[in-house]
Amino acid sequence: MEKKTTKQETKTKPQAQALTLPSQVRGRSFEGTVTKVFPTRVVIEFDRVVSVRKFERFYKKKSKIHARLPKEMTGIKVGDYIKVTECRPLSKIIHHIVVEKIRSGLGENNESN
Questions:
Q1: Which fold has domain 37-105?
Q2: Model-level pTM greater than 0.90?
Q3: Element (DSSP H or E) covering residue 109
Q4: Cα gap 25→74, rounded to integer Å
């Protein structure tokens, strides 16, 4: 016997989020300063601390990450501090996506004077 489905039994789809992320958002997330802005991507730069086991010391190293800039996130400028999250490979160099803008760059506040 086949069971008939009614409108009450069918599940409704959840509403879309404000920010559409790729289906496979996973892994690590980084926070950094925007150094370049392109129409569909941004480049962020952040510092990290690396240990040298032989000498039992640490040194600072800068890393650059290319991240996809969603259409919903307009207003990202050079100098802004943003958060990116790892996702599936979107292109040859893009493996991250911009999730949120934490704070604006310092240059914007001084322009009003």
A1: OB fold (Dihydrolipoamide Acetyltransferase, E2P) (2.40.50)
A2: no
A3: helix 106-110
A4: 21
